[in-house]
Amino acid sequence: MKYNFNRVFQENPNGTLSPRMNINVNGIMFSPGASFGPGVSFGGVDFHQYKYFDIEADEKEGILEIKGFYKQ
Taking the domains of the chain in order of start, what are their residue ranges? Predict the structure, then answer.
């Protein structure tokens, strides 16, 4: 299923990103409240490189499993 980046992540005033929901990326789990800056890789992904790209993901038991990103 396709998700808008801003539905999954929020950009914080200090420039970091935080998930809006529980997410799983390559087996690594994140919850709301976690934050990460540019250049920080979680599950092998630097989400700042994909800011505002649409996200391919499946939701299972309240966890959004991110599969990839749509090219712009």
Answer: 2-69
